[in-house]
């Protein structure tokens, strides 16, 4: 459509960290402890199945962060008596430690699993010892995962990137913030660092993120409570996966908060941080994430993760945990390296091959679908015309810009000063009505922009922005209540831009559309401009485009008295009855156009066929605007 729609370039990397010696000793001990929890026939009984999940949860928690591990261990130590077994945990047989297929499932550590186990005195002693060990490892010297994160973030900040760090658990996010704030602020004193988790209500999360936009350098540490719903592209330009997601869909959800249309930066960075000697990270990275990323890099397609693949991941993790005699082999030639050797276990090797095949099949389906939509079915010229009509009906960015700037300035006396960059303004907030002042960022001067991507330092206003919606509501309320700061529903203007009396009407047109099987109805509502020149008998009508262009450009050239304007308006209103057949014809024509547009789109998507049930008649008349050439007789109707 000839419009610039820039998307950033995504630069994905992987960063492996090695465990410090003390952390490695601890991990070997906790891995051995986890393996001993699991009975070989764990899948046959609920409590034994929960023991497997408990072992997996322990490993995921302690490798997320010392804080997450301590929270899990201390929760069990403070509840010595076993909790009654919860049958609902195994009702659906889905592993609660894994990331959900269907979106965000919470960011608390899975302590409920540990509470289900009847620990022996010896096991409780071991858990207490693990907790003490983790407490001694909670610093940048011993926790090389957090130390590696500091190095990555330091590099990004020095290059001018503003990162988001995604953690799996609340305890981990708070822990990372606690260690990184003093470390990074030594080098970047003005760095704004915030930690946001589900502990904060949704509105407060949004508020804190908006406030961060004022800082030149910013770093957000968050959980997956921000991986859906809140867009971060205006404030952030990089994503660090502090904890690997156990579902590739979550990977794209996180990165898609930053790498999306509206991102003003030409490049965004992403990084997968993983433990080189952590077998769970090795499984997740090798089996889940790398294949999806390779397809994204080579084809540009985001592959939806196969729905039954989480059960396959269970097969592989079980192969790891059900072999208590298998030791971890490490190489100390300058780096620790550990990969899960799938060739040792036929079942795990088969599961990995199955996932790889399913992901490739999904990629081929997506590729075929894109080919159909891109080349064979869509007639670009027809779709473009429809889309331009949609913009015309609901307001394109230029219409929003005109509405906001002229309404604020002309009706409310608010100074809106155009900047050198097109679409950007300085808004002086002094005269803003109280109803809308609090929606904008705090300050006597706010920089606003109607551009997307939005330039750095500007607050974006689009047609769906809350400020624009509230300004519309305020204007309509003032109009209905006949306030002095209102829109004109009628006007009589003497102007040189018409040679003959011209009348323009503003209608609200509503149509009920249903598919031809009668199973679905759609209500379409829009505003229509229509008019005529001269007398009704001459039938010199103006269509929507002509009426809109004339109304947008006309300017008054001389004053008229109130009685004169009233006389013209009253005469014109008397003529409306004679135009009713034409009004109905306009509504019928619009119904036909809407059905044709719906059929063009639906034929590409689901093959549904639509027909008009009826236009809602008569249309609602919302405005009457009479344009008079200079010299028109007062009260004349000819």
Walk across the major sheet and give the strand order: 1-6-5-2-4-3
Helix content bin = 40-55%
**Segments where pLDDT lies below 50 for 5+ residues?**
332-338
Count helical runs. Answer: 19
Residue-averaged pLDDT: 83
State the distance separating the first and last CA atoms.
44 Å
Taken from the alpha-carbon principal axes, the silhouette is elongated
Q: Strand fraction band?
A: 15-25%
Biggest pleated-sheet summary: 6 strands, parallel
Q: Report the count of strand segments.
A: 16
Gyration radius from CA atoms, angstroms? 32 Å
Structural class: alpha/beta
Describe what this molecule looks like in 3D.
This protein has helices at 21-37, 46-64, 66-77, 111-115, 121-136, 144-158, 170-185, 202-212, 248-255, 279-299, 309-321, 346-377, 380-394, 397-412, 434-437, 466-480, 544-553, 562-575, 580-605, and strands spanning 9-17, 163-167, 192-196, 218-223, 238-241, 267-275, 416-418, 424-428, 445-449, 459-460, 490-494, 502-515, 521-533, 540-542, 610-615, 620-628. The protein is of the alpha/beta class and 638 residues long. Among the domains are: 19-135, no CATH class; 397-480; 490-628, no CATH class. The protein has a six-stranded parallel beta sheet with strand order 1-6-5-2-4-3, with helices on both faces. Strands 11, 12, 13, 14, 15 and 16 form a six-stranded mixed beta sheet that branches. β5 (238-241), α9 (248-255) and β6 form a beta-alpha-beta unit. α10 packs antiparallel against α11. The longest helix is centred in the middle third of the chain and has 32 residues, at 346-377. It is elongated.
């Amino acid at each position: 459509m000839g419009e610039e729609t820039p998307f950033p370039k995504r630069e994905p990397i992987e960063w492996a960290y090695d465990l410090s010696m003390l952390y490695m000793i601890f991990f070997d001990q906790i891995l051995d402890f986890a393996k001993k929890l699991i009975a070989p026939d764990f899948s046959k009984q609920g409590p034994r199945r929960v023991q497997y999940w408990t072992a997996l949860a322990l490993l995921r928690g302690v490798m997320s962060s010392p804080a997450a591990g301590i929270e899990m261990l201390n929760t069990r130590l403070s509840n010595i008596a076993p909790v009654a077994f919860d049958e609902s945990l195994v009702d659906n047989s889905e592993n609660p430690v894994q990331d959900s297929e269907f979106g965000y499932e919470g960011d608390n550590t899975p302590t409920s699993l540990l509470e289900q186990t009847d620990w022996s005195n010896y096991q409780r002693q071991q858990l207490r010892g693990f907790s003490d060990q983790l407490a001694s490892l909670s610093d940048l010297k011993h926790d090389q995962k957090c130390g590696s994160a500091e190095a990555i973030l330091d590099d990004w900040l020095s290059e001018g990137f503003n990162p988001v760090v995604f953690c799996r658990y609340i305890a981990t996010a708070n822990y990372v913030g606690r260690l990184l704030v003093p470390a990074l602020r030594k080098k970047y004193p003005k760095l704004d660092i915030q930690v946001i988790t589900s502990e904060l209500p949704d509105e407060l999360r949004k508020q804190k993120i908006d406030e961060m936009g004022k800082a030149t350098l910013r770093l957000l540490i968050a959980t997956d409570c921000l991986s859906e719903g809140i867009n971060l592209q205006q404030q952030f330009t990089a994503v660090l996966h502090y904890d690997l997601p156990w579902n590739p869909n979550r990977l794209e959800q996180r990165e898609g908060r930053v790498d999306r249309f509206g991102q003003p930066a030409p490049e965004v960075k992403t990084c997968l941080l993983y433990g080189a000697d952590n077998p769970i990270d090795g499984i997740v990275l090798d089996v889940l994430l790398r294949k999806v990323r390779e397809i994204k890099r080579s084809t540009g397609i985001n592959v939806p993760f196969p729905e039954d693949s989480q059960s396959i991941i269970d097969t592989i993790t079980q192969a790891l945990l059900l072999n208590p005699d298998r030791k971890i082999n490490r190489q100390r030639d300058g780096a620790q390296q550990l990969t899960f050797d799938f060739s040792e276990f036929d079942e795990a090797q088969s599961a990995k091959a199955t996932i790889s095949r399913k992901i490739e099949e999904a990629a081929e389906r997506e590729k075929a679908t894109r080919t159909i939509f891109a080349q064979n079915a869509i007639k670009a010229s027809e779709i473009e015309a429809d889309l331009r009509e949609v913009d015309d009906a609901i307001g394109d960015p230029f219409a929003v810009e005109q509405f906001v700037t002229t309404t604020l300035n002309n009706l409310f006396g608010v100074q809106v000063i155009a900047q050198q960059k097109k679409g950007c303004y300085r808004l002086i907030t002094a005269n803003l009505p109280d109803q809308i002042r609090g929606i904008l960022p705090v300050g006597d001067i706010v920089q606003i922009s109607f551009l997307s991507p939005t330039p750095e330092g500007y607050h974006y206003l689009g047609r769906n922005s809350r400020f624009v919606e509230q300004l519309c509501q305020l204007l309509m309320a003032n109009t209905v209540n006949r306030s002095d700061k209102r829109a004109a529903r009628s006007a009589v203007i003497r102007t040189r831009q018409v040679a003959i009396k011209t009348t323009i009407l503003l209608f609200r047109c509503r149509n009920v559309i249903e598919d031809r099987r009668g199973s679905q109805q759609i209500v379409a509502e829009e505003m229509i401009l229509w008019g005529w020149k001269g007398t009704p008998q001459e039938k010199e009508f103006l269509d929507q485009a002509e009426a809109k262009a004339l109304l947008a450009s006309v300017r008054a050239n001389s004053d008229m008295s109130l009685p004169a304007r009233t006389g013209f308006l009253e005469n014109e209103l008397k003529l409306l009855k004679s135009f009713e057949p034409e009004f109905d014809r306009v509504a019928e024509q619009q119904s036909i156009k809407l059905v044709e547009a719906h059929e063009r789109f639906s034929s590409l998507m689901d093959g549904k066929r639509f027909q008009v049930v009826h236009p809602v008649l008569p249309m609602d008349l919302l405005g009457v605007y009479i344009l008079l050439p200079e010299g028109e007789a007062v009260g004349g109707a000819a």
